[in-house]
Design goal:
Layout: E1 9-16, H1 20-31, E2 36-39, H2 48-51, H3 72-77, H4 87-100, E3 107-108, E4 113-119, E5 124-129, E6 134-142, E7 164-167, E8 182-186, H5 190-202, E9 205-210, E10 216-218, H6 226-234, H7 236-244, H8 264-277, H9 293-310, H10 314-320, E11 333-335, H11 338-341, E12 347-351, E13 357-361, E14 364-367, E15 371-373, E16 376-379, H12 388-391, E17 394-396, H13 403-406, E18 425-427, H14 440-461, E19 463-468, H15 470-485, H16 515-527, E20 533-537
Parallel strand pairs: 1-2, 1-6, 2-3, 4-17, 6-18, 7-16, 8-9, 8-16, 9-12, 10-11
Antiparallel strand pairs: 4-5, 5-6, 13-14, 14-15, 19-20
Helix pairs in contact: 1-14, 9-10, 14-16
The structure holds ligand NA7.
Ligand NA7 binds next to helix 5.
Length: 542
């Protein structure tokens, strides 16, 4: 462990990442009078929305809700053009925010944080970057994102492929045109399901390599008329407040009825109404879909029926219909023309369960049954979710213990905000918080506000070090697991469970107790004098 900070530049706070979380954190830290340095690996701000510029990339939360609420003028003035915002529009919005609040002067782009070491004597962190810099700070805040460690699976032969290959999560910023090409897409999660219809319209041939079919609900995306936006904006503050009290931080229609409360005809009518409305609202048709397997399967069967009514080839339709997991326990997808794309003559579905990829060859992909000649391969194979972006930084806390080692059996945090043994290290939407189960901007704002209040409390009381107590952390971890075990989520091998990464511990990563409930818990902790946290002060000067 190298903790010598003598040559390091001094600052009050370092924020890792300049996406939605990092930008708002910087804004709040400035208001607290803290000198802050943000490091961002990309050559622009935007985080997830900077990297994910693949064809068809779009948010699955509606535009009017997927934006910051912290500034009334900002939310009144910004105009969205579509029901669901496309990646480019979200990126313009984030850039607008960076300029509007003069954030860029404290953001260093193209710089990846590689390590952070705690000096127990001073309670300060020494942060190092891939540019060889060292910076010493009081507060270290990870805004590194839940879905930012993109994962290309180890497939033999990739280095020999003669064509071009891409990952949806690290897509190049120049325009990629697949016109006339033979393209293979591996992966049918949200990213694949969004990219496939767009690539199919360009490519001469498209082969979709599917390991697990996913449930997808149509977005019915459309232009967003001015009147609709104005009507929403007339009550923006109230809408936001109501959203914060919901299970996912999104104004869906959360049903109060259980599936068995209504007869079959009414059930089907409700599913149909939600299918026609579009979006992830579908999974809230009844209040027991996430906890009762029978109820879940009825909702799932509705979607399977839809798939077979859309996809003309019965064999392809059957392959596209998920039957191995409960609907919603892998993140539900929201699409534009996904299933209908398989009616196109230039699109073929390859079932990797029947015939896995054996190797990539210079000309394409060889599976156990076929060899496909391809000009380009798109990996839509997901992320080392929630913990991946934190794990790739060497973080050493008390006694030089690496965070990776502390978390080797799964992440352990108190409220998903801090972890014992790592004082003054905060996570925005960290493991054990609602994070990926919410409208993540709502979750980000709540965490940033909470962290800011915690730091303000320290400033007011002359304390300089905050750390969760081990007992509080143990209780929280237990609670996170107990709540997850009451749902169907742990029954599925998903990235929520770490199951997509070989060797990653199988632990349910987010907090599924509901965003509204979670915020009440966080407020109660503050009201009880930051219950579960220990504060200390007067460290030696750095
Ligand atoms: P996801 O949801 O993790 O989807 C990844 C897809 O890639 C999924 O279908 C995987 O199949 C498939 N995959 C992963 N590894 C392989 C290998 N080795 N071979 C074949 N297929 C593979 O990532 P996305 O980027 O689509 O979405 C992530 C989130 O971003 C999304 O939920 C939104 O929140 C935004 P599997 O299911 O593991 O069998």
């Amino acid at each position: 462990m190298n903790t010598a900070p003598s040559m390091a530049r001094q600052t009050d706070a370092v924020v890792i990442g300049a996406g939605f979380a990092g930008l708002y954190m910087l804004h709040r830290l400035r208001k607290l009078g803290l000198n802050t340095q943000v490091f961002e690996a990309g050559d622009g701000v935007g985080g997830t929305w900077y990297w994910n510029c693949y064809p068809g990339a779009r948010c699955d939360v509606e535009s009017m809700q997927y934006s910051y609420s912290f500034d009334e003028q900002l939310q009144q003035e910004w105009k969205w053009t579509e029901r669901y915002p496309a990646q480019a529009e979200i990126l313009s919005y984030i850039n607008h925010v960076a300029d509007r609040f003069d954030l860029r002067r404290d953001i260093q782009l193209e710089t990846r944080v590689t390590s952070a070491d705690l000096d127990e004597n001073t309670g300060r962190w020494t942060v190092r970057t891939d540019k060889g810099e060292e910076i010493n700070c009081r507060f270290l805040i990870s805004a590194a994102g839940c879905l930012s460690a993109a994962r290309v699976p180890e497939v033999a032969g990739l280095a020999d492929f003669k064509g071009k290959w891409y990952h949806t999560g690290t897509w190049p910023h120049e325009k990629i045109d697949f016109t006339g090409q033979r393209v293979g897409v591996i992966g049918t999660g949200s990213s694949g399901i969004q990219a496939i219809p767009v690539i199919a319209r360009q490519a001469s041939e498209l082969v979709v390599f599917q390991r697990t079919p996913n449930f997808s609900i149509p977005a019915w995306n459309r232009p967003l008329p001015q009147e609709e936006q104005d009507a929403w904006k007339a009550n923006y503050v109230e809408h936001r407040e109501r959203a914060r009290n919901t299970r996912s931080g999104i104004l869906y229609q959360y049903s109060l009825r259980a599936t068995a409360d209504v007869d079959e005809a009414e059930r089907q009518a409700e599913y149909e109404r939600r299918w026609q409305r579009g979006g992830a609202n579908f999974t809230h048709a009844f209040n027991d879909i996430f906890i009762n397997r029978v109820s879940n399967d009825q909702a799932a069967q509705f979607v399977r029926n839809k798939i077979s009514s859309i996809v003309r080839d019965p064999k392809t339709a059957a392959l596209l219909a998920p039957s191995d997991h409960a609907i919603g326990t892998k993140r539900i997808c929201v699409d534009s023309d996904y299933y209908a794309t398989f009616n196109r003559p230039n699109v073929k579905l390859h079932d990797l369960r029947a015939a896995p990829i054996e190797t990539i060859v210079p000309e394409g992909i060889r599976t156990a049954s076929d060899t496909y000649a391809l000009d380009s391969i798109v990996f839509a194979t997901g992320y080392d979710a929630v913990t991946g972006s934190i794990d790739r930084i060497e973080i050493r806390g008390r006694a030089g213990v690496a965070l990776k080692d502390k978390w080797s059996h799964g992440p352990k945090t108190y409220l998903g905000i801090m972890t014992a043994g790592y004082p003054n290290l905060f996570f925005i939407t960290g493991p054990g918080s609602p994070s990926v189960l919410t409208n993540v901007i709502v979750a980000i704002e709540q965490h940033v506000d909470w962290i800011s209040r915690c730091i303000a409390h320290m400033q007011a009381s002359g304390q300089t070090i905050a750390e969760p107590r081990q007992t509080a952390e143990d209780e929280w971890v237990k609670h996170v697991n107990e709540v997850a075990d009451q749902t169907l989520f742990p029954t599925t091998k998903s990235w929520y469970m770490g199951a997509n990464i070989p060797g990653k511990p199988r632990v349910f990563l987010p907090y599924v107790g509901g965003f509204g409930n979670y915020t009440v818990i966080c407020e109660d902790v503050i009201k009880a004098g930051y219950r579960g946290f220990a504060f200390s002060g007067q460290p030696q000067p750095a």
